[in-house]
Amino acid sequence: MTKEKAFVIGDIHGMYHSLEVMLSHWRRDEEQLILVGDYIDRGPNSDSVLKTVRTLQKEHNAILLRGNHEQLFLNYLLEPRKEWKLYKQNGGATTISQLLQIQIEDVEAQAPEEVVEKLLEKEPWLIEWLESLVYYTTFGNHIIVHAGVDFTKSDWRYTSLHDFLWIREGFHYEKNTTGRNIIFGHTPVQTLHESVEPWQRDGKWGIDGGNVYGGSLIALRIDREEVNDVVVLR
Fold first, then answer.
1. Three-state SS for 126?
2. Largest CA distance in the chain
3. pLDDT at 146 over 90
4. H or E stretch including 21?
5. Which residues cross the membrane (predicted)?
6. pLDDT tens digit string along 6-18?
């Protein structure tokens, strides 16, 4: 049965305990669960977060968006030698060490191709699952996307795949021409205003609370027309 309400959770980045607490606020019988991406990297428990979100997807039809960190991980798995440096710069070694249950130093001491071989032997689902993650979803009058959309396009759906995952300039402070609310993560709200609460401007709702940096994990309760409530875990 199609649900008329949804619960949208911002960037998690391996913060498993925060995710567990946030899920206790989710009204699963009446709310569609939507997560905006960036489940992994930097935080202490990306392995547990991945296991949990995959279970939510399988058992509760959770909609899982692709974040730029999932894309970085996928790129690394497909081309380890070429993509290792960039993925490492973005916190990827923490995720790999947690999945393989080895020290970060041991990850960095091995050839990237060897590490990927071990990852795929232990978790053979990784590539197919990462490739299946969607770039955006809609829920009534809401667009839900990891980073944002390109307002210069005649239709926001023509936004490049790169911009769905990475856009900042040209989105936050530009006029919202979609006629819809846009719920997004990617940019910690502390960089947009002096608060760990959601950032709002012209129908745009930023919900990356910078939890992995000591900020907050944010979720929104929405119906098909508007945002009804905010949950902020500090």
1. helix
2. 51
3. yes
4. helix 16-23
5. none
6. 999 999 999 999 9
Q: What is the DSSP letter of 148?
A: -
Q: How do strand 204-208 and strand 199-201 relate by DSSP bridges? A: antiparallel
- Can you give the pLDDT at residue 196? 97
Query: Can you tell me the distance from the alpha carbon of 69 to that of 53, in angstroms, rounded to the nearest whole number?
Result: 15
* Per-residue pLDDT, 110: 97
Q: What's the pLDDT score for residue 1?
A: 74
DSSP for the chain?
---SEEEEE---TT-HHHHHHHHTT--TTTEEEEE-S--SSSSS-HHHHHHHHHHHHHHH--EEBPPHHHHHHHHHHHSHHHHHHHHHHTTHHHHHHHHHTS-HHHHHHS-HHHHHHHHHHH-TTHHHHHHH-BSEEEETTEEEESS---TTSSSGGGS-HHHHHH--TTTTTS---SSSEEEEEEEEGGGTSSSSSPEEETTEEEEE-BGGGTSBEEEEEEESSSEEEEEEE-
115 three-state secondary structure = helix
